[in-house]
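Continuing from the previous page...

OK, I double-checked the sequence for KH domain-containing protein against my notes and this is the correct one:
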Amino acid sequence: MQRCIKLKRSQKLGNYIQISSRIRNLAEAHGMIIYHYKANIVATVTNTTVEIIVSEHVFGAVYGEDGGNVDRIRQISGANVTVYDPSAGTSGGKVVISGTPDQTFAAQSLLQAFIQSGQGS
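Thanks. Re-ran it with the corrected sequence; updated structure tokens here:
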């Protein structure tokens, strides 16, 4: 399922609408396709990628035994999930989630649940 986002008009110029370059760059960076319809601008998000830094003290809860929690996130959400172990001099590891907007949202929600369970330990 594709998600459409309506962007507000920034300035009307005759039959055309000018959107700021900031909005256009943001849309392109997130894989959005911008369609122009007279007075409406619609952007379709087809793929998103999110990078999340996970603190070292909850990283084990996120990863799980033999990567079991990460596998669960992948299976339930359908998103691509890549985990980078904490490296020397950093405060945490990195989790990169990509997929459709619905997949990335589901994966982020599951990741947050594992982070919260690790904070209670």
